[in-house]
Write a structure and sequence with these properties.
35% of the residues lie in helices and 35% in strands. The chain is α+β, with helices and mostly antiparallel strands. It folds into 4 domains: 52 residues, no CATH class; 102 residues, 2-Layer Sandwich (TATA-Binding Protein); 98 residues, no CATH class; 189 residues, no CATH class. α7 packs across α8. It is elongated and about 140 Å long. The model has no long low-confidence stretch (mean pLDDT 88). It is a multi-pass membrane protein.
Length: 541
């Protein structure tokens, strides 16, 4: 018992650690979260994959051994105790009973009548009577098989542990990413601190992926249509959603996540050398495109067709709107600090519908948490605005540094005439404001070109989790036995009553004794009620 208590305490502490500390995450996440010192301490203890460590499995093994020894030593005794039904009580044992009452009766009722009155008050009890040394003993039992509760509870815990051990040794749980229209058969998972892979005995094809969003932009439901291909044959096609997995050959296939499956991306590159030059660049998500002209590279990391943001101007208000597709990339180049950029395809439209120009988010650290908005000013989807910007820059370059605002205004007028002639658009005032903003902003960007999302062909991937848990049914059986055993322990106390009758010259002396192993207060009420009923039956002398 002492060993079992110590093992349970240690396992409880370990389980709390395993619950609080997320298991089987990427090692870089752990390093960033805990720092080098604690990262190596936790890693050396195996806390990142605790349930597969040798020490945790050893603790489980000792607990299983302890439970087995406990059952081996005590079950025979318990079975013998439940089968035994000693009816007689010696005088010393009788006097030590906590619940004890006596009657002294005249010769009014026979022994058989007294016993019958006792039996009549205890419906559903088991009785046994015996004569010994001139005394008549009647024993009544209810819940005499209560020891089965202890046996079943301990056996159930052992069964659950065995089921868990089977799952650890012969089961697996890994992730698979399948793009729409493609097939996969390999899962990846963390084994300790290393990544490992495992080939499935079948292939999984994602036919389609659909997703619904809440008004806030959060995913409402995502659904994958999957086909299982076994030995080159399509054997099963089914939809799966979260918490409704697909089951095949002992493997559960869960809908776990989703993301971009390698969408085709088209960038429009705006040259910053004053040439007004633009050109297209074709690439894709998870690919790196290198520009042969400027030497920069674009590593595309993600694409999102929807970006729902709260555009309400007042704090506390909510006004959700889809601001359009975006692409994330890391831009690198000679003499350029690598930065992470999230570029939006559409210009930003304010709450009043006013075009505020194209924009992007820039992170100097490479962490999405550090994104800062950068308003470019120009509507980069409008070729005329790009021409106006370059024309304005060209005319400004001809002015002297000491030129006043009037000269700059005249330069802008000339640029407007170069682009629009004598028929400027109605919103030329807004365009002029954005152009001035761009003149102040764009030259600060250290890049030779500004990559903006121009077109895309979107493809999702469905993130699946494949799990085989051969010990699951064993654990369910053990859990059911555990509940049944606990019900017996808590709701089936062993209650015992004795009626002892001694014949005397004046009549008879009758004693009523009782004891129970649980819920003494309730049994005491039952005993007192029985005494009152028997007292009416017997009558006092």
């Amino acid at each position: 018992m002492s060993l079992a208590i110590v093992l349970l305490m240690v396992l409880s502490i370990a389980s709390v650690i395993g619950t609080v500390l997320l298991q089987n995450q990427d090692q870089t996440d752990y390093l960033q979260q805990f720092g080098p010192l604690w990262y190596w301490v936790f890693r050396s203890l195996g806390l990142f994959d605790m349930y597969h460590t040798w020490w945790f499995l050893t603790l489980l093994g000792f607990l299983m051994l302890s439970l087995t020894a406990c059952l081996w030593r005590n079950v025979p005794k318990m079975l013998k105790e439940m089968r035994s039904n000693k009816v007689t009580l010696n005088e010393r044992s009788l006097k030590r009973m906590e619940l004890l009452q006596h009657w002294k009766l005249k010769s009014v009722m026979s022994v058989e009548e007294l016993e019958q009155a006792f039996r009549k008050q205890l419906y559903g009890w088991n009785f046994k009577a015996v004569e010994e040394n001139g005394q008549h003993f009647v024993r009544a039992d209810k819940g005499r098989n209560h020891k089965w509760g202890y046996i079943l509870v301990h056996s159930a815990i052992l069964i659950v542990l065995v089921g868990g051990w089977i799952s650890v040794q012969f089961g697996f749980r890994g992730n698979m990413a399948v793009a729409e229209g493609s097939m996969e058969k390999q899962i990846s998972f963390l084994k300790g601190t290393e990544s490992a892979t495992l080939d499935m005995p079948f292939q999984v094809r994602c036919n389609s992926f659909d997703i619904d969003f809440f008004q806030t932009g959060a995913p409402k439901e995502f659904r994958s249509n999957l086909t299982i291909i076994d030995e080159g044959k399509e054997v099963l096609t089914s939809d799966i959603i979260v918490n409704e997995p697909l089951f095949y050959k002992g493997v559960y296939i869960y809908q776990a996540s989703f993301g971009d499956g390698g969408s085709d991306i088209t960038f429009k590159l705006f040259h910053m050398d004053g040439s007004q030059k633009t050109r297209m660049a074709q690439t894709g998500v998870y690919k790196t495109w290198k520009d042969p002209e400027t030497g920069i590279s674009l590593e595309v990391t993600d694409f999102r067709p929807y970006n729902v943001e709260n555009i309400a101007e007042n704090l506390g208000e909510k006004k959700f709107k889809d601001i359009g597709p975006s692409v994330e990339y890391v831009i690198r180049g000679s003499g350029i600090k690598p930065v992470k950029v999230k570029s939006y395809m559409n210009p930003y439209m304010g709450p009043d519908g006013q075009n505020q120009g194209s924009w992007m988010m820039v992170s100097l650290t490479g962490d999405a948490k550090d994104y800062q908005p950068v308003a470019l000013g120009l509507d980069m989807t409008s070729p005329d605005e790009w021409k106006l910007y370059n024309a304005f820059i060209s005319h400004l370059s001809k002015l002297q540094e000491t030129s006043d605002n009037k000269a700059k205004y005249e330069a802008f007028q000339k640029a407007t005439h170069d682009v629009y002639g004598d028929s400027p658009p109605e919103n030329i005032r807004d365009i002029s404001i954005r152009t001035v903003q761009a003149v102040n902003m764009l030259p600060q960007l250290p890049w030779p070109v500004i990559p903006m999302l121009d077109d895309f062909e979107h493809v999702y991937y469905t993130g699946l989790q494949l799990a085989k848990d051969p010990g699951m049914n064993v654990v369910w059986i053990g859990s059911a036995i555990l509940v049944f055993g606990l019900c017996i322990m808590f709701y089936m106390p062993h209650r015992k009553l004795w009626l002892v009758i001694r014949a005397t010259e004046a009549g008879a002396e009758v004693s009523l004794a009782g004891m129970t192993n649980r819920n003494q207060i309730a049994f005491k009420e039952t005993f007192n009620d029985l005494f009152i009923k028997l007292d009416k039956e017997f009558g006092r002398s």
